[in-house]
Amino acid sequence: xxxxxxxxxxxxEAARRPVWESFVQELDRDSRRGWSxxxxxxxxxxxxxxxxxxxxYREVSRDLALARDRAYSDxxxxxxxxxxxxxxxxLYRAQRSxxxxxxxxxxxxxxxxxxxxxxxxxxxxxxFCIPFFLMWWAGSVAPEWVLALLGEDTIxxxxxxxxxxxxxxxxxxxxxxxxxxxxxxxxxxxxxxxxAGGILAGVGSLFFLGFNAFFLGAVxxxxxxxxHNDNFLPFVAGHGAFEITGLWVSALAGLEVGMAWxxxxxxxxRFAMVEGARTGLKLLGGAAAxxxxxxxxxxxxxxxxxxxxxxxxxxxxxxxxxxxxLMFAGRSREx
Amino acid sequence: MKLDxxxxxxxxxxxxxxxxxxxxxxRGCALLLDTLVRxxxxxAVFLTLGWFGIMGDALITLIIFLAEWFYYVFFEVLFKGVxxxxxxxGLRVLHDDGTPVGWNASLVRNFMRAxxxxxxxxxxxxxxxxxxxxFRRLGDWAAGTVVVHDSMRKRRARGRxxxxxxxxxxxxxxxxxxxxPLVLDRDEQGALLAFLQRRGQWSQERAQELSNLLEPITxxxxxxxxxxxxxxxxxxxxxx
Lengths: 335, 240
Hints:
Distance between the termini of chain B: 30 Å
Strand content of chain B: 5-15%
Number of helices of chain B: 12
Number of strands of chain B: 4
Helix content of chain B: 55-70%
Distance between the termini of chain A: 54 Å
Number of domains of chain A: 2
Structural class of chain B: mainly alpha
Shape of chain A: elongated
Order of helices and strands of chain A: HHHHHHHHHHHH
Number of domains of chain B: 2
Largest sheet of chain A: none
Largest sheet of chain B: 2 strands, antiparallel
Shape of chain B: elongated
Number of strands of chain A: 0
Oligomer: heterodimer
Structural class of chain A: mainly alpha
Radius of gyration of chain B: 25 Å
Number of helices of chain A: 12
Radius of gyration of chain A: 29 Å
């Protein structure tokens, strides 16, 4: 072995440098390939001599260990450390998932994941519903609460949108798309924020969730006060199911992080949190899908001029559908 | 070594890799640069799509949504942990086991920015990374990631010149290797080798001052002591 005989640093470097150089070359070639690097493993090496990246990596790793053991200079140790670090990153990159995983997750993985946390999910539901209905009810008994919460600007824009019966109906497809874009940015953004709030021991998630519930309840309350129910309720009936469920699930996703931090169980707190965040992220993916679906409905269906009764029926049906999906999808696959 | 912001990570080869963690200041600079990049990008989007009426506005909204939440994720995952700002500052995001950051971790750490940047100017993020031994902001905790100095690239540009091609021997002439008169332990050997190799970074006076510390062993001082000390280093470096 070249490294074994020559104990002095100079000789060691002289003997091993060719190996390091070819390792670095191999790395550079590899990262230039970058995007298609998955093919790397299958490609045959060019020359008979040229070694492949993994075996070069092991050699350089060993050289670093030797350099440390023999207390070679910091400069050499550091240089080797960097090469090994780069090789490490090249070789141990994460597995990529496929599109089929996404579909199977939405088809049954997501509802299964949710059902495993049904208690916590009901808690999120309640954390939303109680303030929401409280404020809605306040619309008839304590209007000053509602007015104080909404502020003048919101009230003005609500009057503009829902004040007359044709404020929303009969939007063109173009307007529908622009509404869709707005709802995506706004509502999916809210989902992400609610999830992020989970890092503050879950308190942030509940705070954002509660705040949105109060605000939304106040909107309903004000509409009731102002007598715009007939314009407003048919509009929101359609997308409510997806949007609100998405919001609950994002809060659940945030709690997943927060609870992992509060009670990590038998794992270390740090590890539990990373794992909780990973599960939370999956749930958030489902929530974002639901919310995006709501944005489609809200952009194109909700403002359409379909008769009011049909809108209510469709709205109700979508609630039932959502509930059925969350309760039963993937039952047969559950352990 | 304890003052160093290094973090040891063990690879499957049973080797401890050293990661050089990045503190609040360089990360703040990278953040500013990234914000600037996004600002320029937004301007470009407004100036081009702004002409296309309602549809254009809708596309702008969607693009801004994507840039708000996925700018970092896009760069970190596709460019092995480097966003434009991090590239200029020379930083890189890694999993805390030293592997390149993946989709999951990158999504988590970047969504958590929504909290890290509260209440003002990344207040929570700064607080968290100042208190954490490995400079993690809240998003890094949740994602299990660290931000490290990407010394590789920086070194290729700067270090090659300074460290490798320095005069190997102190004052121009070649160093005559001198056998070390006593048995040295590993730290001592390392110190002598490091002295030899970092010689070019000091002034003559400083180098002599340092080698004077070894006077009890070299029995020489000043320039002669320096040459002797370098000689020891050279002896350790060359083949026996």
